[in-house]
Amino acid sequence: MKIGGLDRNFSETIKVRIIVFTLFMAASFSFLILRLWYLQVIKSDELKLQAENNRIRMVPLKAYRGKIFDRNGREIINNRPSFNLSIIPEYIKDLDRILSLIASRVKVDTEKIKRDIKNDFTPFQSIIIKKDISRDEVAFIEEHSLDLPGVFLEIEPMRDYLYGDTGSHIFGYLGEITKTQLEGLKVSDYRLGDFIGQYGVEKRYESILKGKRGSKYVEVDAVGRELKVFKQVDPDFGYNLYLTIDIEIQKEAERLFEGKNGAVVAIDPRDGSILAMVSKPSFDPNMFAGGVPKEYWSNIINDAYKPLQNRAIQGQYPPGSVFKIVTAAAGHEESVITADTTIDCPGYFILGKKSYRCWRKGGHGRMNLRNAIIQSCDVYFYTVGFRLGIDRLSRYAFGFGLGSPTDIDIEGEKAGLIPTEEWKESAKGETWIPGETISASIGQGFNLVTPIQMANMMAAVANGGTLYKPKIIFGAEAADKKLIEDEDSKIKGRLLVSQKTLDIIKDALHGVVSDPRGTGRASSIKGIEVAGKTGTAQVIRMAEMEDKNNDEEIPYEFRDHAWFVAFAPYENPMIAVVVLVEHGGHGGSAAAPIAGKLIKSYIEKESRIQEVEGSSENKPLNP
């Protein structure tokens, strides 16, 4: 009985186990069937796409930016191929090992790379860890490709500024697009990591230069290596841009200005085309092309002389004696003087209890208008300014294009300042006093102008009174040579003076250079008639500085700014030039020689071209 009972219990136990096992197997198969159904039916499209992504990868192809040429078709800026080191995180199992191997030969910031992967992660998208790596670094990556799964090289175009820092403030530079900029370009072809114009022409004409990215679809293996290209959509090239700049004259202006701070602007008075524009100190835009090094950027932004400032359009300075052109024109037009009016200069001008000195301590004696301009007599213009009053004087200054932007076609231009009684009341809450008019009449006091304003003013005097909108851009063309933009010369207005007044002033400006007593004799050129005006703009009035024997005894930051404005040839002007040397001292000695040499170089160059072409016209290249 006992044995039989044990058999029954054993049999029952076996049955239970078989039932449990059967139920377990049924449940397992049911789960597998349901899972297969879920994956093959519900998730089939998504999984199919993931599987395809594991096999096919889309690689974006960066567009080539349009090239930039000068007025004569000489290439200034183009693109060169560069290698970027990139990774796709999904293909990397041991990121620390991979980055350690890369860092053994390639200078990279591994911690920053990890942060970028964490912050900018997008499935199966490449992340650039270093741009424009060297040939040795390329060779190292290629040699260790089997040890670097998910690491690869991408070739992309990089901006190449062929003349280094020459014209850097005109051309500008590229910089990596920021998240803020990207958010502001919601409908765009940009992505994080792309480079965009950040300054100068590169920024102003970004939409024309940028082009459109392409793409290619490639088969990759398990570690992300490309096996085969299935499809490729080539990028569209950006439009080429033609400038009014003459790069040879630009180079010459930079050479003449070497070792100085300030600005040079050369302009064609016949249509407002900028021939050269120098701002010093400058910077090398090639340093920005692949991402500016931290040390270089730190040096630039901490430089006391602000090399990123375009002094030609952003520097605001007292105009000094160059402003006497305006005072003379206003006085003659308002009939407070004639060309024959003489004023005695004893070396000072008395107003109330205050004495205003002339630059020549012994005085100039009796001066008419022409001689006063030639010798830059302060007392003569003190008198004219006092007779005019500040508001009449300011009205003519505005009419000469001072105190407001010229609307040149690059960004960042400053307006300068021409004071009026209303301005002082509004800005300072004070009443205008007559002594301030005395200072304003010779370009001191509150007056502030930019070099581009002065150049444009001189161009208008040279061409008979037409104020043009200065332009740096001539036009742009596509690869099919179709001109898409050709901005005609725009006239902003005319000088508020009669032809008679203008002729008197032009004759006197010719005397500034040609007369033995002229302050601009240092700009004279054999065989070329030049007209000009010197200016010495006081930076700070310090009584203890007035007794110094020469500028070398005065601290640099307290020395006067040196101006010279000119045009030539006198009878048929082809070029107007302004030179401003910061803390350069006297315009006649520091600025005039630079202007004279630049004018000579340009006119001789144009004469040679005309001889070859047999033409008397000077026109920019028509793409």
Quaternary class: single chain
What is the CATH H-level superfamily of the largest domain? DD-peptidase/beta-lactamase superfamily
User: Can you tell me the CATH topology of the largest domain?
Assistant: Beta-lactamase
Q: What is the rounded distance between the termini?
A: 116 Å
- Percent strand: 15-25%
Main β-sheet description:
7 strands, mixed
Count of strand segments: 23
Helix content: 25-40%
Text of the CATH class of the largest domain: Alpha Beta
Can you offer a commentary on this structure?
By secondary structure, this protein is of the alpha+beta class. The protein has two domains: 57-243, Alpha-Beta Complex (Penicillin-binding protein 2a (Domain 2)), CATH 3.90.1310.10; 247-281 and 312-475 and 496-613, DD-peptidase/beta-lactamase superfamily (Beta-lactamase, 3-Layer(aba) Sandwich), CATH 3.40.710. Helices cover 38% and strands 20% of the residues. The protein contains 22 helices and 23 strands. The strands form seven sheets. Strands 2, 3, 4, 5, 10, 18 and 19 form a seven-stranded mixed β-sheet that branches. Strands 12-11-23-22-21 form a five-stranded antiparallel β-sheet, sandwiched between helices. Strands 1-8-9 form a three-stranded antiparallel β-sheet. Strand 22 (561-568) and strand 23 form a beta hairpin. Helix 13 (324-333) crosses helix 15. The longest helix is centred in the first third of the chain and has 41 residues, at 2-42. The chain is elongated and about 145 Å long. The model is unreliable at 480-486 and 616-623 (pLDDT under 50).
